[in-house]
Design goal:
Layout: H1 2-16, H2 19-25, E1 44-46, E2 55-56, E3 66-68, E4 71-76, E5 79-84, E6 87-91, E7 98-99, E8 107-111, E9 114-119, E10 122-127, E11 130-134, E12 141-142, E13 150-154, E14 157-162, E15 165-170, E16 173-179
Antiparallel strand pairs: 1-13, 2-6, 3-4, 4-5, 5-6, 7-11, 8-9, 9-10, 10-11, 12-16, 13-14, 14-15, 15-16
């Protein structure tokens, strides 16, 4: 096999000639690149604080997965876990995820006349007798944040980020001041 590769290389070298000749025959073309300006919504700088991730090595007995968009979510104690590399890592259910029952530690909120239920960083709205995961409503005030909330610097303001929502400390607790959105790559 080595002899065959060597023979093909030798044939190509003789056929094409020296590398200087091959480089001289190459046509040079210029390519103009155009950069598109991306709209940055807000500047978020995360502090070097290590956040404890909740993981499970084994699921409790009789835990059944809820499959949504080809991803299996395992509900345990009001939180959801996904399997990664042999362990179960806490994950927030995506928007549009529906369930029949709410977690046990749910708090009822009303923001701008719209009723929500909140549990462990996730907001739910009742739709047709089921509960759907809703985007965090800007202006909602919570008495306390889960321990998973990450401290960040949001445009020079100390804030907390959890499940794509930015919380700021106020007198009554923590208010959602903005929601992070993924940038569209165009």
């Amino acid at each position: 096999m080595k002899n065959l590769k060597f023979a093909l290389f030798l044939f190509a070298f003789i056929f094409v000639g020296s590398t200087d000749y091959a480089e001289a025959q190459a046509r040079r073309t210029t390519v103009k690149t155009v950069r598109k300006k991306r709209r940055v919504k807000r500047k978020v700088r995360r502090h070097n604080r290590r956040v404890v991730r909740r993981t499970l090595r084994r699921l409790p007995a009789n835990t059944r997965p809820v499959v949504f968009r080809r991803v299996a979510y395992y509900p345990v104690g009001g939180m959801y876990y996904v399997q990664r590399r042999g362990i179960y890592v806490r994950a927030f259910p995506p928007r549009g995820f529906r369930m029949r029952l709410l977690p046990a530690a749910t708090v009822a909120l009303t923001v701008r006349g719209i009723p929500y239920n909140y549990a462990d960083g996730v907001f739910y709205q009742e739709i047709d007798g089921e509960y759907e995961v809703a985007p965090p409503p800007v202006g909602a005030v919570l008495s306390e944040l889960p321990e998973d909330a990450e401290e960040i610097d949001f445009d020079g303001v100390p804030a907390y980020e959890l499940n794509e929502a930015i919380y700021q400390a106020v007198e009554d607790g923590y208010e959602i001041i903005d929601v992070l959105e993924e940038e569209d790559a165009e």
